[in-house]
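[audit] Reproducing an earlier prediction to check determinism. Same input, same settings, fresh worker. If the tokens differ from the archived copy the diff job will pick it up downstream; this log only records the rerun itself.
[audit] input (100 residues):
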Amino acid sequence: MARSPFLGLRGARLNTVLMIVAGTEFLLFGYDQGVMGGLLTLPSFTNVFPEICTTKECNALRSPAENSHVSTIQGTPPDLYAVKRQSMKTDVDRRFNILL
């Protein structure tokens, strides 16, 4: 019994396309992490967004409770995005969800 092709591809060609797409995604994810990690500690960024400052100088000026609140503020957007994506898995067709 032959399997149906995915996006018109099967076998080695499908594996090659998947490797290229996954490799590109990992490359871009790593790039984003490297760029954003550096931006979060720049003085120009911490002056504009002092409530989420992550530098040692800012942490020394705040109490442990305030530092905990800052961690909550920083973690909330990614958590909400993850919940949104998880809820979409049940509502939207799987193939469409992969494209998002």
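[audit] rerun output stored. Observation attached for the diff report: Residues 7-39 form one domain.
[audit] end
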